[in-house]
Amino acid sequence: MDIDELIYKYLRGNLNLEEQHRLKNLLGQENIDSEGLRKIELFWKDPKNKYTNESEEVYKDIFRKIDDSQKKEMLDRRFVQSRRNTFRYISIAATVSILVALIYLFPEFNKKEHVISDLPPITEARKTLAGQKLQVHLRDGSKVKLNAESSIEFPKYFSDSSRVVTLIGEAYFEVAEDATKPFRVVVGNVVVQALGTSFSIKSEPGTTKVFLTSGKVSVTSAKIDEAVILAPGEMVEENNGFFDNVNAFDYADIAWIDNILIFQDASSSQVFQKLEKWYGVDIHVKDELGRWSFSGQFENEPLKEVLIGIGHSEEFDFEIQNKEVVIKKQPK
Question: According to the model, what pLDDT value does residue 89 have?
């Protein structure tokens, strides 16, 4: 798809995620920055820019200045059915050269005064830090719950044929059903596709896990052609592009969705790493605590209460100073 068609779809709000990435790259190649794209959109939205004989002469003059025979042939196709006598502004036939000419060859266009905030990005993104969780509502009605230290990128408007988002980290998806628009999550080497379902994805360097709670999903990898199909209660793990066997998963794998913190035979380092991510703190172990493992469950408990519970079992004390936690041996 040419850049002029991509810009037209952008103005109509019909770009999918892949097309948006392509448009970003092409705009950079044509040296059109966000300010240039802003002016194009302003011109598109301005009701004063109606089709007239004068505006046609302006466009013909642009073509004369550009002096490109191929673009002259496209001139005859620049108008399609009008919307309440409003000029079609910049049709699919209008190329980037025309848009650039509007901005840079005509001072009166370039100097128009408009009161408008900066255009939103082609894609939107949400991000969480350690100790944070975030509920994201997509325009199609789908819901995404981001776990700590995660991010999601999605188009402002989904295309007419698909819904594609990109995930880094961990998130739980409740996908609004739409049989005509498959919902795809791109995460590392993996693509998870669903129509209307609920699933959780956990991505770490070199590995991605997919847990299905309802409905049905297919999971594909860049290195494997055949998709893995999951049923509710099943999970699959990808390692460097290859899938392990499909297995049942334990509730502990997705308990974070309900704000429940679960440890199952976790070592001291695993316990403290999980607490750092869950509560957004830095934990420093001052003394040698010996080797131990801990199993337990906490629901919506503050950090202090969690540390009291674990410390009583594993015999350590602690001090909390803002976002810093010091772990030390209990005195004998």
Answer: 39
CATH class for the region spanning 259-329 = alpha beta
pTM listed for this prediction: 0.64
Gap between the Cα atoms of 221 and 239, Å rounded: 10
Residue 51 has φ and ψ, to the nearest 5°, of -75, 125
Lookup result for tokens 């466009």: 59
**Burial readout 120-131 (b: 16 or more C-beta within 10 A, e: otherwise):** eebbeeeebeeb
Spatial distance between the Cα atoms of 199 and 140, rounded to a whole number of angstroms: 17
Tell me, what amino acid is at 109?
Answer: F
Question: Under CATH, which architecture does the 123-253 domain have?
Answer: Sandwich (2.60)
Residue 27 has phi, psi (to 5 degrees) of -60, -40
C-alpha span between 191 and 185 (Å, rounded): 6
User: Which residue, chain included where needed, has tokens 């999601």?
Assistant: 152
For residue 180, pLDDT beyond 60: yes
**Can you tell me the distance from the alpha carbon of 228 to that of 246, in angstroms, rounded to the nearest whole number?**
8
Residue 213 near residue 232, CB atoms below 8 Å:
yes
**Residue-level pLDDT at 224:** 81
| Helices 96-104 and 34-45: angle between axes, nearest 10 degrees | 90
Indicate the range of 45-54, 152-161, 250-259, 264-273 predicted with least confidence: 45-54
Residue 230: Cβ within 10 Å count? 22
Average pLDDT over residues 134-141: 95
For the chain, what are the domain ranges? 3-110, 123-253, 259-329
Q: Are 235 and 209 in contact (CB under 8 A)?
A: yes
Q: What percent of the chain has pLDDT over 70?
A: 65
H/E run at residue 238: strand 234-239
pLDDT per residue over 74-98, tens digit each?
A: 444 444 344 433 334 344 344 444 5
- Domains 123-253 and 259-329 agree in fold: no
